[in-house]
Amino acid sequence: MKTVLFILLALILGGLAAFFTLREKKKCPNCESRNITKTGKKIHEEETSIAVIASPTSYHKLEYKCNNCGHLFLIKQRSLLFE
Ligand SMILES: [Zn+2]
């Protein structure tokens, strides 16, 4: 019975973690609008310090465009989780 409870708990925690990761505030740094779209441009990050600490794979940045003010900005994403 304990095993079942443990699995349930793990699923709930995993679900919550995924939920909060997805809810990660993606908004325009210029006007704070959430009305943003991906431009499709991907920039690979070569900062070895970050790569070594956080994950064996490299990070990449996705370019977003704000539909409110037209500001272009980059959001860092972990390749492992988002590809
Ligand atoms: Zn904006």
Summarize the structure.
This protein has 83 residues and is of the alpha+beta class.
Please give a structural write-up.
With about 80 residues, the chain is an alpha+beta fold. The chain has one domain. Helices cover about 40% and strands about 30% of the residues. It has helices at about 1-20, 50-55, 80; strands spanning about 35-45, 60-65, 70-80. A 3-stranded antiparallel beta sheet has the order 1-2-3. Strand 2 and strand 3 (about 70-80) form a beta hairpin. The longest helix has 21 residues, at about 1-20. It starts with a helix and ends with a helix. The structure holds zinc ion. Zinc ion (ZN) binds near residues 28, 30, 31, 33 and 66.
Notable features of this structure?
single chain, 83 residues, alpha+beta, three-stranded antiparallel sheet, 3 strands, 29% strand, binds zinc ion
Bound molecules: zinc ion
Q: In total, how many beta strands?
A: 3
Strand content: 25-35%
How is the biggest beta sheet arranged? 3 strands, antiparallel
- What would you call the structural class? alpha+beta
Strand order of the largest sheet: 1-2-3
- Report the end-to-end length measured between terminal Cα atoms: 36 Å
The gyration radius over C-alpha positions equals 17 Å
- What's the SSE pattern? HEHEEH
Shape: elongated
pLDDT under 50 segments (min length 5)? none
Give me the number of helical elements.
Answer: 3
- Counted up, domains total 1
**Please, what is the average pLDDT?**
79
Share of helix among residues?
25-40%
